[in-house]
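As promised in the previous annual report, we have extended the structural survey to additional targets. Below is the entry for ShKT domain-containing protein.
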Amino acid sequence: LTQCGNARLCAAPSRLQPSVATCSSRTAPNGSRYPIFRSSNFCPKSCGHNAEFVDDADFCPRTCARHFFNSQSLGCVTPFGFRSRNVNGQSPLPGCQCKPGFVLDGSNCVLPNECECISNLCIDRQNRTVCEAWKAQGYCDKYPLQMRRYCKLTCDQCQAPCQDQISKTTCQTIKSQGRCSDSFYKQMCQLTCNPSDCECPPCKTVRGPCDSQNKNRRVVTYCYAPDSNGRCQRSQSSSVYEPCGDCQEQQQRVDTRSCNYCTQEQVTRIVRTVRETTGEMRCIEVNSNMTTRSPGCECQTNTNRTVCYRNSELYVINTVSAPSADCATCNTTVTETRLRNVTCTKVVKRGECDQVVTKRRPVTVTRGIVRNCQCDLITEQYEEMCVCPKPHWTPTICHRNRAKLRWFVAFSLVHGRCVPIVKPHKHRVPCPRRHHV
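The corresponding C-alpha coordinate record, generated without further manual editing, is:
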Protein backbone atom coordinates (compact mmCIF):
# COMPACT_ATOMS: atom_id res chain seq x y z
CA LEU A 1 0.00 0.00 0.00
CA THR A 2 2.80 2.35 0.86
CA GLN A 3 4.38 1.72 -2.53
CA CYS A 4 1.20 2.67 -4.40
CA GLY A 5 1.04 6.12 -5.78
CA ASN A 6 -1.12 8.53 -3.93
CA ALA A 7 -3.25 9.20 -6.99
CA ARG A 8 -3.90 5.49 -7.65
CA LEU A 9 -4.79 4.70 -4.04
CA CYS A 10 -6.98 7.73 -3.51
CA ALA A 11 -8.73 6.88 -6.79
CA ALA A 12 -9.37 3.23 -5.76
CA PRO A 13 -12.96 2.06 -6.10
CA SER A 14 -15.16 2.65 -3.12
CA ARG A 15 -15.64 -1.08 -2.57
CA LEU A 16 -11.86 -1.45 -1.93
CA GLN A 17 -11.54 1.33 0.63
CA PRO A 18 -13.49 -0.40 3.50
CA SER A 19 -11.29 -3.52 3.13
CA VAL A 20 -8.17 -1.42 3.24
CA ALA A 21 -9.46 0.42 6.28
CA THR A 22 -10.22 -2.87 8.06
CA CYS A 23 -6.79 -4.24 7.26
CA SER A 24 -5.08 -1.16 8.59
CA SER A 25 -6.91 -1.54 11.90
CA ARG A 26 -5.62 -5.08 12.60
CA THR A 27 -2.34 -6.22 14.18
CA ALA A 28 0.30 -8.02 12.14
CA PRO A 29 1.69 -11.47 13.28
CA ASN A 30 4.85 -9.82 14.55
CA GLY A 31 2.77 -7.56 16.81
CA SER A 32 3.08 -4.45 14.66
CA ARG A 33 0.12 -2.59 13.09
CA TYR A 34 -0.47 -2.37 9.45
CA PRO A 35 -0.01 1.07 7.90
CA ILE A 36 -2.92 3.43 8.40
CA PHE A 37 -4.75 3.96 5.16
CA ARG A 38 -5.68 7.70 5.58
CA SER A 39 -4.32 10.59 7.55
CA SER A 40 -4.67 14.35 7.55
CA ASN A 41 -1.80 14.43 4.99
CA PHE A 42 -2.37 11.15 3.09
CA CYS A 43 -5.63 10.88 1.06
CA PRO A 44 -7.59 13.04 3.55
CA LYS A 45 -11.37 12.53 3.45
CA SER A 46 -13.65 15.51 2.73
CA CYS A 47 -15.94 16.04 5.73
CA GLY A 48 -19.27 17.84 6.02
CA HIS A 49 -20.08 21.26 7.44
CA ASN A 50 -18.71 21.92 10.94
CA ALA A 51 -16.75 18.60 10.75
CA GLU A 52 -13.07 17.88 10.29
CA PHE A 53 -10.82 14.90 9.43
CA VAL A 54 -8.63 13.64 12.30
CA ASP A 55 -6.23 10.72 12.70
CA ASP A 56 -7.83 9.52 15.94
CA ALA A 57 -11.59 9.90 15.56
CA ASP A 58 -13.62 9.06 18.69
CA PHE A 59 -15.68 5.85 18.50
CA CYS A 60 -18.34 7.42 20.74
CA PRO A 61 -18.69 11.00 19.46
CA ARG A 62 -20.61 13.55 21.46
CA THR A 63 -24.24 13.60 20.22
CA CYS A 64 -27.26 15.76 21.05
CA ALA A 65 -28.63 13.06 23.37
CA ARG A 66 -25.31 12.61 25.21
CA HIS A 67 -24.86 16.39 25.49
CA PHE A 68 -28.22 16.98 27.13
CA PHE A 69 -28.91 13.73 29.02
CA ASN A 70 -25.46 12.09 29.42
CA SER A 71 -27.12 8.76 28.67
CA GLN A 72 -24.88 5.67 28.45
CA SER A 73 -27.64 3.37 27.19
CA LEU A 74 -27.89 4.85 23.73
CA GLY A 75 -24.82 3.12 22.32
CA CYS A 76 -22.08 4.68 20.24
CA VAL A 77 -22.41 6.21 16.80
CA THR A 78 -19.37 5.99 14.57
CA PRO A 79 -18.32 8.87 12.33
CA PHE A 80 -19.62 6.80 9.41
CA GLY A 81 -23.08 6.52 10.93
CA PHE A 82 -22.86 2.86 12.15
CA ARG A 83 -23.33 1.76 15.77
CA SER A 84 -20.16 0.14 17.15
CA ARG A 85 -20.72 -3.35 18.51
CA ASN A 86 -17.50 -3.43 20.53
CA VAL A 87 -16.00 -0.22 21.70
CA ASN A 88 -13.72 -1.36 24.48
CA GLY A 89 -10.17 -2.12 23.41
CA GLN A 90 -10.54 -0.54 19.97
CA SER A 91 -7.81 1.81 18.83
CA PRO A 92 -8.84 5.15 17.37
CA LEU A 93 -9.00 5.35 13.59
CA PRO A 94 -8.70 8.34 11.28
CA GLY A 95 -12.00 9.79 10.15
CA CYS A 96 -14.44 12.67 10.39
CA GLN A 97 -15.74 14.05 13.63
CA CYS A 98 -17.43 17.25 14.76
CA LYS A 99 -15.33 20.28 15.47
CA PRO A 100 -14.97 21.34 19.10
CA GLY A 101 -18.16 22.92 20.41
CA PHE A 102 -20.40 21.00 17.97
CA VAL A 103 -22.38 17.81 18.57
CA LEU A 104 -23.61 15.12 16.19
CA ASP A 105 -27.29 15.39 15.26
CA GLY A 106 -27.92 12.43 12.94
CA SER A 107 -25.24 12.89 10.28
CA ASN A 108 -24.83 16.66 10.78
CA CYS A 109 -22.64 18.58 13.18
CA VAL A 110 -24.62 21.36 14.87
CA LEU A 111 -24.43 23.58 17.90
CA PRO A 112 -26.19 22.08 20.94
CA ASN A 113 -29.02 24.63 20.78
CA GLU A 114 -29.69 23.67 17.16
CA CYS A 115 -30.36 19.99 17.79
CA GLU A 116 -33.47 18.95 15.86
CA CYS A 117 -34.22 16.22 18.36
CA ILE A 118 -35.49 18.88 20.78
CA SER A 119 -37.41 20.95 18.23
CA ASN A 120 -40.75 19.50 19.32
CA LEU A 121 -40.09 19.94 23.03
CA CYS A 122 -41.51 22.89 24.92
CA ILE A 123 -38.17 24.32 26.06
CA ASP A 124 -35.92 27.32 25.55
CA ARG A 125 -32.74 26.48 23.67
CA GLN A 126 -31.15 29.69 24.91
CA ASN A 127 -30.58 30.58 28.54
CA ARG A 128 -33.87 31.51 30.21
CA THR A 129 -32.49 34.87 31.32
CA VAL A 130 -31.53 35.74 27.74
CA CYS A 131 -34.96 34.68 26.44
CA GLU A 132 -36.74 36.80 29.01
CA ALA A 133 -34.58 39.80 28.05
CA TRP A 134 -35.43 39.26 24.37
CA LYS A 135 -39.11 38.97 25.20
CA ALA A 136 -38.98 42.27 27.10
CA GLN A 137 -37.51 43.90 23.99
CA GLY A 138 -40.45 42.67 21.89
CA TYR A 139 -38.51 40.04 19.91
CA CYS A 140 -41.30 37.45 20.36
CA ASP A 141 -43.59 39.57 18.14
CA LYS A 142 -40.93 41.00 15.81
CA TYR A 143 -39.15 37.71 15.03
CA PRO A 144 -41.67 34.91 15.72
CA LEU A 145 -39.91 32.23 13.63
CA GLN A 146 -36.48 32.76 15.19
CA MET A 147 -37.84 33.10 18.72
CA ARG A 148 -39.90 29.91 18.32
CA ARG A 149 -36.63 28.07 17.69
CA TYR A 150 -34.60 29.52 20.55
CA CYS A 151 -37.13 30.77 23.15
CA LYS A 152 -40.19 28.67 22.50
CA LEU A 153 -41.32 28.39 26.10
CA THR A 154 -40.66 32.00 27.11
CA CYS A 155 -42.51 33.39 24.09
CA ASP A 156 -45.58 31.24 24.88
CA GLN A 157 -45.33 29.50 21.50
CA CYS A 158 -46.00 26.06 22.89
CA GLN A 159 -48.28 24.34 25.32
CA ALA A 160 -46.21 23.78 28.44
CA PRO A 161 -47.01 20.29 29.75
CA CYS A 162 -47.26 19.77 33.47
CA GLN A 163 -45.15 16.61 33.25
CA ASP A 164 -41.62 15.44 32.53
CA GLN A 165 -40.75 15.62 28.84
CA ILE A 166 -38.20 12.81 29.10
CA SER A 167 -38.29 9.51 30.95
CA LYS A 168 -39.16 9.58 34.61
CA THR A 169 -36.03 7.56 35.47
CA THR A 170 -33.72 10.04 33.73
CA CYS A 171 -35.40 12.97 35.49
CA GLN A 172 -35.04 11.30 38.87
CA THR A 173 -31.33 10.70 38.12
CA ILE A 174 -30.90 14.37 37.20
CA LYS A 175 -32.65 15.39 40.42
CA SER A 176 -30.43 13.08 42.52
CA GLN A 177 -27.35 14.61 40.89
CA GLY A 178 -28.54 18.11 41.94
CA ARG A 179 -28.89 19.40 38.39
CA CYS A 180 -32.55 20.52 38.67
CA SER A 181 -31.36 24.11 39.11
CA ASP A 182 -30.08 24.09 35.54
CA SER A 183 -32.62 25.97 33.40
CA PHE A 184 -32.61 23.26 30.70
CA TYR A 185 -33.32 20.36 33.05
CA LYS A 186 -35.76 22.51 34.97
CA GLN A 187 -37.84 22.67 31.78
CA MET A 188 -37.34 19.06 30.68
CA CYS A 189 -38.15 17.58 34.12
CA GLN A 190 -40.62 20.13 35.33
CA LEU A 191 -42.87 17.71 37.19
CA THR A 192 -39.93 15.95 38.95
CA CYS A 193 -37.74 18.98 39.63
CA ASN A 194 -40.36 21.66 40.32
CA PRO A 195 -43.76 20.12 40.97
CA SER A 196 -45.01 23.27 42.71
CA ASP A 197 -44.34 25.38 39.60
CA CYS A 198 -46.16 22.99 37.29
CA GLU A 199 -48.99 25.27 36.31
CA CYS A 200 -50.72 25.84 33.01
CA PRO A 201 -49.91 29.04 31.15
CA PRO A 202 -52.22 32.02 31.61
CA CYS A 203 -55.08 32.69 29.21
CA LYS A 204 -53.90 33.87 25.83
CA THR A 205 -55.65 36.53 23.77
CA VAL A 206 -55.38 36.44 19.97
CA ARG A 207 -56.55 39.41 17.92
CA GLY A 208 -57.53 38.77 14.34
CA PRO A 209 -56.94 41.04 11.34
CA CYS A 210 -58.89 44.27 11.01
CA ASP A 211 -61.89 44.10 8.67
CA SER A 212 -61.44 46.99 6.23
CA GLN A 213 -65.19 47.34 5.63
CA ASN A 214 -66.69 46.89 9.09
CA LYS A 215 -63.67 48.36 10.93
CA ASN A 216 -63.74 45.60 13.56
CA ARG A 217 -61.78 42.50 14.46
CA ARG A 218 -62.38 39.31 16.36
CA VAL A 219 -60.64 38.83 19.70
CA VAL A 220 -60.40 35.22 20.91
CA THR A 221 -59.18 34.35 24.43
CA TYR A 222 -57.89 30.82 25.04
CA CYS A 223 -57.57 29.39 28.57
CA TYR A 224 -55.84 26.17 29.70
CA ALA A 225 -56.34 23.62 32.46
CA PRO A 226 -54.44 20.42 33.32
CA ASP A 227 -56.01 17.10 32.38
CA SER A 228 -55.80 13.84 34.34
CA ASN A 229 -52.28 13.20 33.01
CA GLY A 230 -51.03 16.62 34.05
CA ARG A 231 -50.90 17.96 30.49
CA CYS A 232 -52.34 21.39 29.87
CA GLN A 233 -55.29 21.27 27.54
CA ARG A 234 -57.34 24.10 26.13
CA SER A 235 -60.36 24.24 28.41
CA GLN A 236 -62.40 27.15 27.17
CA SER A 237 -62.33 30.07 24.81
CA SER A 238 -64.32 33.26 24.41
CA SER A 239 -64.82 35.42 21.37
CA VAL A 240 -65.66 39.12 21.26
CA TYR A 241 -65.27 41.94 18.77
CA GLU A 242 -63.55 45.26 19.16
CA PRO A 243 -63.23 48.38 16.97
CA CYS A 244 -60.06 48.75 14.93
CA GLY A 245 -60.48 52.04 13.12
CA ASP A 246 -62.69 55.07 12.66
CA CYS A 247 -66.09 54.61 11.06
CA GLN A 248 -65.81 57.99 9.35
CA GLU A 249 -69.33 58.84 10.46
CA GLN A 250 -71.08 60.86 7.79
CA GLN A 251 -74.56 61.80 6.68
CA GLN A 252 -75.67 61.88 3.08
CA ARG A 253 -78.86 62.12 1.05
CA VAL A 254 -79.08 59.07 -1.14
CA ASP A 255 -82.71 59.09 -2.34
CA THR A 256 -85.38 61.75 -2.93
CA ARG A 257 -89.00 60.62 -2.90
CA SER A 258 -92.14 62.24 -4.41
CA CYS A 259 -93.34 65.65 -3.34
CA ASN A 260 -96.53 66.46 -1.45
CA TYR A 261 -97.77 69.47 -3.43
CA CYS A 262 -100.55 70.19 -0.94
CA THR A 263 -98.17 70.76 2.00
CA GLN A 264 -95.17 71.66 -0.21
CA GLU A 265 -93.05 69.04 1.66
CA GLN A 266 -90.66 66.33 0.53
CA VAL A 267 -89.54 63.06 2.23
CA THR A 268 -85.77 62.45 1.94
CA ARG A 269 -83.97 59.24 2.98
CA ILE A 270 -80.88 60.00 5.05
CA VAL A 271 -78.05 57.43 5.35
CA ARG A 272 -75.66 57.72 8.32
CA THR A 273 -72.60 55.55 9.08
CA VAL A 274 -72.35 54.75 12.81
CA ARG A 275 -70.61 52.26 15.09
CA GLU A 276 -72.53 49.43 16.73
CA THR A 277 -72.42 49.67 20.52
CA THR A 278 -73.02 45.94 21.06
CA GLY A 279 -72.45 42.70 19.22
CA GLU A 280 -69.76 42.74 16.55
CA MET A 281 -69.07 46.50 16.87
CA ARG A 282 -69.35 46.97 13.13
CA CYS A 283 -69.58 50.18 11.13
CA ILE A 284 -73.10 50.02 9.72
CA GLU A 285 -75.40 52.28 7.71
CA VAL A 286 -78.58 53.54 9.40
CA ASN A 287 -81.46 54.82 7.26
CA SER A 288 -83.94 57.46 8.39
CA ASN A 289 -86.59 59.59 6.70
CA MET A 290 -86.70 63.37 7.05
CA THR A 291 -89.62 65.57 5.94
CA THR A 292 -88.66 69.08 4.90
CA ARG A 293 -90.28 71.96 3.09
CA SER A 294 -88.89 72.08 -0.42
CA PRO A 295 -89.17 74.87 -3.02
CA GLY A 296 -89.33 72.16 -5.68
CA CYS A 297 -92.61 70.87 -4.24
CA GLU A 298 -94.61 74.02 -5.01
CA CYS A 299 -97.04 74.35 -7.91
CA GLN A 300 -96.35 77.10 -10.41
CA THR A 301 -97.60 80.60 -9.58
CA ASN A 302 -100.75 81.67 -11.42
CA THR A 303 -99.91 84.02 -14.27
CA ASN A 304 -101.67 86.38 -16.70
CA ARG A 305 -99.97 87.39 -19.89
CA THR A 306 -101.05 89.30 -22.99
CA VAL A 307 -100.39 88.05 -26.51
CA CYS A 308 -101.02 89.54 -29.94
CA TYR A 309 -102.60 87.62 -32.80
CA ARG A 310 -102.82 88.72 -36.43
CA ASN A 311 -101.01 91.96 -35.71
CA SER A 312 -103.96 93.75 -34.10
CA GLU A 313 -105.96 91.26 -31.99
CA LEU A 314 -105.04 91.37 -28.30
CA TYR A 315 -105.71 88.32 -26.05
CA VAL A 316 -105.12 87.58 -22.33
CA ILE A 317 -103.80 84.07 -21.41
CA ASN A 318 -104.52 82.93 -17.84
CA THR A 319 -102.44 80.03 -16.36
CA VAL A 320 -103.76 78.47 -13.16
CA SER A 321 -101.83 75.66 -11.34
CA ALA A 322 -103.25 73.69 -8.39
CA PRO A 323 -102.45 70.38 -6.59
CA SER A 324 -104.26 67.25 -7.66
CA ALA A 325 -106.69 65.41 -5.39
CA ASP A 326 -103.96 63.00 -4.17
CA CYS A 327 -101.39 65.83 -3.82
CA ALA A 328 -98.95 63.86 -5.97
CA THR A 329 -98.96 66.18 -8.99
CA CYS A 330 -99.89 69.72 -10.04
CA ASN A 331 -102.73 70.27 -12.53
CA THR A 332 -102.34 73.29 -14.80
CA THR A 333 -105.22 75.00 -16.69
CA VAL A 334 -104.67 77.55 -19.47
CA THR A 335 -107.48 79.84 -20.83
CA GLU A 336 -107.45 82.54 -23.56
CA THR A 337 -109.73 85.63 -23.52
CA ARG A 338 -110.13 88.15 -26.37
CA LEU A 339 -109.33 91.56 -24.97
CA ARG A 340 -109.78 94.04 -27.88
CA ASN A 341 -108.72 95.05 -31.34
CA VAL A 342 -105.96 97.59 -31.38
CA THR A 343 -106.75 100.84 -33.35
CA CYS A 344 -104.68 103.98 -33.62
CA THR A 345 -106.07 107.57 -33.44
CA LYS A 346 -105.09 110.67 -35.42
CA VAL A 347 -104.21 113.90 -33.64
CA VAL A 348 -104.35 117.26 -35.50
CA LYS A 349 -102.83 120.36 -33.99
CA ARG A 350 -103.39 123.77 -35.71
CA GLY A 351 -101.29 126.80 -35.11
CA GLU A 352 -102.24 130.50 -35.07
CA CYS A 353 -103.77 132.03 -38.18
CA ASP A 354 -102.05 134.86 -40.06
CA GLN A 355 -105.17 136.89 -40.98
CA VAL A 356 -103.35 139.80 -42.51
CA VAL A 357 -100.66 138.56 -44.84
CA THR A 358 -100.83 134.90 -45.69
CA LYS A 359 -104.17 134.12 -44.20
CA ARG A 360 -102.77 130.68 -43.45
CA ARG A 361 -101.81 128.67 -40.39
CA PRO A 362 -99.48 125.71 -39.72
CA VAL A 363 -101.02 122.29 -39.18
CA THR A 364 -99.36 119.23 -37.49
CA VAL A 365 -101.02 115.84 -38.03
CA THR A 366 -99.91 112.80 -35.94
CA ARG A 367 -101.36 109.39 -36.85
CA GLY A 368 -100.48 105.81 -35.91
CA ILE A 369 -100.00 102.59 -37.89
CA VAL A 370 -100.84 99.28 -36.10
CA ARG A 371 -97.90 96.84 -35.93
CA ASN A 372 -97.84 93.84 -33.49
CA CYS A 373 -100.75 95.36 -31.56
CA GLN A 374 -98.88 98.65 -31.09
CA CYS A 375 -99.19 102.05 -32.80
CA ASP A 376 -96.20 103.31 -34.71
CA LEU A 377 -96.60 107.14 -34.92
CA ILE A 378 -96.06 109.16 -38.12
CA THR A 379 -96.08 113.00 -38.06
CA GLU A 380 -96.93 115.28 -41.04
CA GLN A 381 -96.81 119.08 -41.22
CA TYR A 382 -98.42 121.46 -43.74
CA GLU A 383 -100.27 124.83 -43.98
CA GLU A 384 -103.95 125.51 -44.54
CA MET A 385 -106.17 128.45 -45.16
CA CYS A 386 -107.52 130.10 -42.09
CA VAL A 387 -109.37 133.20 -43.55
CA CYS A 388 -111.73 132.97 -46.53
CA PRO A 389 -112.72 135.92 -48.83
CA LYS A 390 -115.86 137.83 -47.97
CA PRO A 391 -119.08 136.83 -49.73
CA HIS A 392 -120.04 138.85 -52.81
CA TRP A 393 -122.41 139.10 -55.82
CA THR A 394 -121.32 138.32 -59.26
CA PRO A 395 -122.14 140.72 -62.13
CA THR A 396 -125.62 140.46 -63.60
CA ILE A 397 -126.06 138.83 -66.92
CA CYS A 398 -129.06 138.49 -69.17
CA HIS A 399 -130.27 135.02 -69.30
CA ARG A 400 -131.96 134.18 -72.59
CA ASN A 401 -133.31 137.69 -72.92
CA ARG A 402 -135.83 136.89 -70.35
CA ALA A 403 -134.26 137.48 -66.98
CA LYS A 404 -131.42 138.98 -65.18
CA LEU A 405 -129.16 136.40 -63.46
CA ARG A 406 -126.49 136.83 -60.88
CA TRP A 407 -124.89 134.62 -58.15
CA PHE A 408 -124.22 135.15 -54.52
CA VAL A 409 -120.87 133.66 -53.63
CA ALA A 410 -120.01 132.88 -50.04
CA PHE A 411 -117.08 130.79 -48.64
CA SER A 412 -116.94 128.12 -45.98
CA LEU A 413 -113.69 127.09 -44.30
CA VAL A 414 -113.51 123.30 -44.41
CA HIS A 415 -110.32 121.54 -43.28
CA GLY A 416 -108.16 124.51 -44.19
CA ARG A 417 -109.80 125.09 -47.53
CA CYS A 418 -112.24 127.81 -48.57
CA VAL A 419 -115.10 126.03 -50.18
CA PRO A 420 -117.28 128.39 -52.19
CA ILE A 421 -121.01 128.29 -51.72
CA VAL A 422 -122.75 129.69 -54.79
CA LYS A 423 -126.42 130.55 -54.85
CA PRO A 424 -127.92 131.83 -58.10
CA HIS A 425 -130.43 134.73 -58.04
CA LYS A 426 -132.64 135.18 -61.06
CA HIS A 427 -134.80 138.27 -61.58
CA ARG A 428 -137.24 138.09 -64.44
CA VAL A 429 -137.00 141.32 -66.27
CA PRO A 430 -137.61 141.60 -69.99
CA CYS A 431 -134.44 142.53 -71.58
CA PRO A 432 -134.38 145.24 -74.24
CA ARG A 433 -134.36 144.09 -77.77
CA ARG A 434 -131.39 144.69 -79.84
CA HIS A 435 -131.68 147.30 -82.53
CA HIS A 436 -130.71 146.37 -86.00
CA VAL A 437 -129.13 148.98 -88.10
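The chain has a mean pLDDT of 78. The longest strand covers residues 232-243. These points will be discussed at the next consortium meeting with the crystallography subgroup.
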